[in-house]
Model the fold of this input.
Amino acid sequence: MDEELKKLYQLQQLDLELDELDDRGGELPTEVDALKKRGEALKNAAATEEKKLRELRKSRTDTHAEMQALTERKRTLNDRLRTVRNNREYDATTTEIEAADAEEQRLARFLVMLDTQEATIIKDIDTLSRQRDEAVREHEEKSSVMATIRETNSDEIAALKEKKAEMLGHVAPDLLRKYNHIRNAYADAVVKVRKGACSGCFRALPPQVLVQMRRGEQLFTCQHCHRIVVLEELVAPPPVATE
Done:
């Protein structure tokens, strides 16, 4: 078990180096993703406003057609008014003319409202478009920076991944599964025991566990944080030879 733990600890060191290289972009990946989503959201918002603008302009066209029909109707009614034969026909015709006048005034007010709404929507579309252009430009700039960072690290990352692939062949599958599961919670899934305590959460381990660990017969995890624990001397680098 000791040899497997050594290999697992070495595997973790490779993973930590890969993590560090991924982190060199800092918050860039998160920012790039957020800018992409913002650009898409602004594009969708502008498209919604443009749809409203199209519907508004169609409504205006329809309203103008209604007003033109009313004008024709009023002309017909006024022509009829000159040929009425009695008071009843006169009253009925004037009532229709008054109703047409009222409807014409309502449509005129409606057109004024449409003009106001159109101006607001056009302004909103312009604002959304400018914000989207800004988000797209910033996204492109930060994406370029992130690509440069990744390209700079690409050789180092490739070398580390090659070492990791080789190392994976020396770790038992069940141990690897446990390691990967713990790594979902902690980057340092395998930690040293220092002065009788887990160096991950700094909580003391039971004395009997320390005794059993020195036998090197089984795997142990911290009862508090559940990281895999190894004796410090087991994974310590070999001493540097001196002349």
